[in-house]
Structure to design on (488 residues):
């Protein structure tokens, strides 16, 4: 009787995972191009002549001047006008990992992805090298910024500069920055060898800084980063993550010895800008599954424990799903977890195929196709295969969010309203029920609630705000799907 129940559970799961659009597959090629184009809408600094999101203009051209350094460039993290180094570095790492695993599948979009990465790494290099002993980790007073609703081109709030140092440590943000630079160095090895070498050289120095001066950056910086991007998980996961990426980029045994000394044994079911344990374990498991090095078995087992906590039919699953089949981790910006977890599912499946590997969650046998089917289901949901038949990527499909929580998108552009719109004057647009006048193509919003409902309300930032770290891992999953199913 128990075996019949097990079989029935497995069949239900298979049906759940195999759902696709009744009208066919989404256009993954179009979605991939748009997911990368989104980053142009988040650019800070002087925009290039080939800027395609043309309602944006130059902004933040004096960033860094408060500390007598040049911190122009980089990305605004979400719908605000602050440059937070922690999520920007994670975004960069995930964009780079997306290219590392899927460059050939990305076809013509690989150059656009490299451009998106370089816009971030040029900024991170500035942040890491301009003042000895300091890593700059933020530009813009977030509390003042969040009291305003104004275009980045009009910003008149303080562009305060924040940094970590020996006396104000930030191991988490430093190790994530090191991971970003190391991962990007792999991306640029064949495209720009000198730039690749520079990225790796700086990555090593920033990682040394992270290890030498231990501490949470949110303890050092307080209200400058909390509650916006507090380091809730501490810094051990970033140290593991940073060392893992430097080991991948260098094969230097000292990084391997260090990451093994960390001994992070937490069982987790999440992967995000704050908690990197699952990502590091999947990355390290490649050494066992692809290279055949059995000394990495503990990381493989931890990666598979994570997978078993995600899969819906696993006896050890700790993951909720909406009635429509979406992974649901948290009520605020839930799609960030969906895209990051889906990326890990696809990537681990790729490693499994290399060695014809399977594993078990209890009595359930899991193969790479199980992981890929779940990841595909999540991506398809985001692109419109959901109860509302709404794409959560702006500009993709016929129905998508119209009232995104995003200053630049919701306010008239300089082309249509050349005069400045002040801090408080912008709130008339914030509270308006009209659609945003500017389409931020490719932006993926926070997403629906646990019941698949989505209000499309600009004032609901938890569901209507896009973020770079939602899009970055999605780029990798879409690239995989383009390679598997074509661009439609």
């Amino acid at each position: 009787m128990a075996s019949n129940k097990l079989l029935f559970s497995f069949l239900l799961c298979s049906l759940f995972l195999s759902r696709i659009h009744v009208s066919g597959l989404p256009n993954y090629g179009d979605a991939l191009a748009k997911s990368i184009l989104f980053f142009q809408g988040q650019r800070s600094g002087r925009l290039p002549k080939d800027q395609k999101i043309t309602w944006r203009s130059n902004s933040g051209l004096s960033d860094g001047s408060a500390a007598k350094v040049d911190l122009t460039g980089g990305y605004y993290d979400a719908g605000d006008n602050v440059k937070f180094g922690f999520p920007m570095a994670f975004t960069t790492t995930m964009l780079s990992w997306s290219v590392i695993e899927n460059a050939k599948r990305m076809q013509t979009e690989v150059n656009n992805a490299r451009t998106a990465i370089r816009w971030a790494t040029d900024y991170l290099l500035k942040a890491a090298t301009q003042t000895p002993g300091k890593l700059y980790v933020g530009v813009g007073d977030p509390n003042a910024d969040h009291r305003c609703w104004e275009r980045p081109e009009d910003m008149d709030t303080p562009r305060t500069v924040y940094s970590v140092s020996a006396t104000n440590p930030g191991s988490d943000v430093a190790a994530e920055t090191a991971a970003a630079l190391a991962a990007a160095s792999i991306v640029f090895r064949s495209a720009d060898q000198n730039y690749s070498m520079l990225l790796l050289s700086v990555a090593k120095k920033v990682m040394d800084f992270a290890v030498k001066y231990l501490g949470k950056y949110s303890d050092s910086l307080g209200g400058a980063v909390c509650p916006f991007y507090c380091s809730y998980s501490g810094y051990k996961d970033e140290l593991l993550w940073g060392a893992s990426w430097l080991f991948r980029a260098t094969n230097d045994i000292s990084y391997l010895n260090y990451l093994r000394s960390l001994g992070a044994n937490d069982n987790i079911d999440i992967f995000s800008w704050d908690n990197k344990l699952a990502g590091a374990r999947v990355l390290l498991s490649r050494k066992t599954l692809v290279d055949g090095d059995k000394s990495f078995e503990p990381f493989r087992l931890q990666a598979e424990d994570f997978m078993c906590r995600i899969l819906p039919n696993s006896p050890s699953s700790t993951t909720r799903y909406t009635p429509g089949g979406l992974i649901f981790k948290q009520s605020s910006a839930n799609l960030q977890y969906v895209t990051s977890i889906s990326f890990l599912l696809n990537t681990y499946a790729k490693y499994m195929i290399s060695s014809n590997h399977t594993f078990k969650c209890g009595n359930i046998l899991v193969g790479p196709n199980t992981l890929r089917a779940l990841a595909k289901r999540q991506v398809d949901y985001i692109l419109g295969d959901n109860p509302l038949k709404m794409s959560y990527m702006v500009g993709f499909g016929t129905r998508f969010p119209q009232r995104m929580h995003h200053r630049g998108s919701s306010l008239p552009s300089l082309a249509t309203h050349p005069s400045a719109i002040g801090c408080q004057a912008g709130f008339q647009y914030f509270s308006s029920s009209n659609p945003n006048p500017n389409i931020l193509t490719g932006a993926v919003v926070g997403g629906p609630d646990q019941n698949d409902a989505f209000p499309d309300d600009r004032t609901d930032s938890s569901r209507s705000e896009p973020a770079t770290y939602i899009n970055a891992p999605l780029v990798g999953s879409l690239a995989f799907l383009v390679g598997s199913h074509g661009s439609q």
